[in-house]
Amino acid sequence: MASAPAEFKVVHRPEKKAFVAQFTDGVEGKLEYDLAGGVVDMFHTEVPPQKAGKGVAGVLTKVIGFEFNLSCLLTSCA
Fold first, then answer.
1. Does residue 34 contact residue 40 with C-beta atoms inside 8 Å?
2. Exposed end of the chain (fewer CB within 10 Å): N or C?
3. In this structure, what is the dihedral angle of CA atoms 10, 16, 49, 11, given to the nearest 10 degrees?
4. 18: which residues sit within 8 A by CB, 6+ positions away?
5. How many degrees, rounded to 5, is the angle at CA 56 between CA 10 and CA 38?
6. Pairwise CA distance, residues 29 & 19, whole Å
7. Which of helix, strand or coil describes residue 18?
8. For residues 51 and 23, is the Cβ–Cβ distance under 8 A?
9. What are the CA-CA distances from residue 25 to residues 4, 7, 28 (Å)?
10. Spacing of C-alpha 48 from chain mean position
11. What is the DSSP string of 41-69?
12. Closest of 69, 78, 59, 63 to residue 7, by C-alpha
């Protein structure tokens, strides 16, 4: 059985170099990045356990790609 989609909006917080998934129930997930020399390095993603497996990190990754008009993404997180 497929899990229900997570309901959230994505907010860019450039002062923290992060994109945040704000869920309707008040919890947050995030993708942190660094920008240097025209390269965006996504070095940390965090999704609350109750929201895991619903594609949140993937959406955050797509949003950062669109925001910075990237054709290639670098991920250094493990």
1. yes
2. N
3. -10
4. 12, 30, 31, 32, 33
5. 65
6. 9
7. strand
8. yes
9. 14, 9, 9
10. 12
11. EEEEEE--GGGTTSSHHHHHHHHHHHHTT
12. 59
Residue that has been written with the tokens 């955050």 in this structure: 60
- Would you give per-residue pLDDT tens digits along the chain (78 residues)? 445 456 899 999 999 999 999 999 999 999 999 988 778 888 999 999 999 998 999 999 888 888 887 766 667 765
Distance CA 1, CA 77 (A): 30
Identify each DSSP E strand in 1-78 by its residue range: 8-13, 18-23, 28-36, 39-46, 74-75
- For 29, counting Cβ atoms within 10 Å of its Cβ (0-12 exposed, 13-18 middle, 19+ buried), the class is buried
The structure tokens listed for 68 are: 């910075």
Give the number of other Cβ atoms within 10 Å of residue 37's Cβ.
4
